């Protein structure tokens, strides 16, 4: 997938190209007609899904398709709404979605790949008025989330979970991936089998 710009240098179209074919035959997957929004394409960390996002300064909208079947059509996660921004990643049968629908500092929810809309969202990290949820990392064995105290550069200790077990908070000053890796190192007895994610009430 790739994007092209309009006359104002705004990325507004997403195309699908098949390697070895004439680019003149590339398929238009999505066109963003609202000039307040720009289009971006990305791949999930798992490599399983491709995302086509439309983003303005205050709202976003994401569509996806399976990387194994790039000839398929796009599926919408959630339609754009005023002042609602979200982004996502993938692991297993779930999308992990960072969204600011209940507060400006974002929360983290999951949704089944088969039913990714808001009606299926399940909260796993709630919104906090004093902490901005800056990112999340859902690799095969761990879920890591991290953020900063709003109005302060001081890091909040990252929360890392491995197979439902909260690991010891790691050092400050690390990005989300580094933080969870350090937590695993400092908690070598953590189980390495089962399903990851925080336990209810963690």
Question: What features would you describe in this structure?
Answer:
- The protein is mainly β and 202 residues long.
- 5% of the residues lie in helices and 41% in strands.
- The chain has one helix at 176-186, and strands at residues 2-5, 11-16, 27-31, 38-43, 49-55, 60-66, 75-78, 86-91, 94-99, 107-112, 122-125, 131-137, 142-149, 159-162, 165-166.
- A hairpin with a 5-residue loop joins strand 4 and strand 5.
- It is globular, with a radius of gyration of 18 Å.
- Mean pLDDT is 78; it is low at 153-158, 161-176 and 182-202.
Key words describing this protein structure:
single chain; about 200 residues; mainly beta; four-stranded antiparallel β-sheet; 1 helix; about 5% helix; disordered C terminus
pLDDT averaged over residues: 78
Strand order within the widest beta sheet: 4-5-6-7
Q: Could you tell me the number of beta strands? A: 15
Q: Estimate percent helicity.
A: under 10%
Tell the overall outline: globular
Overview in brief:
Helix content is 5%, strand content 41%. The protein has 202 residues and is mainly beta.
Write the layout of secondary structure elements.
Elements: E1 2-5, E2 11-16, E3 27-31, E4 38-43, E5 49-55, E6 60-66, E7 75-78, E8 86-91, E9 94-99, E10 107-112, E11 122-125, E12 131-137, E13 142-149, E14 159-162, E15 165-166, H1 176-186
Antiparallel strand pairs: 1-2, 2-3, 4-5, 5-6, 6-7, 8-9, 9-10, 10-11, 12-13, 13-14, 14-15
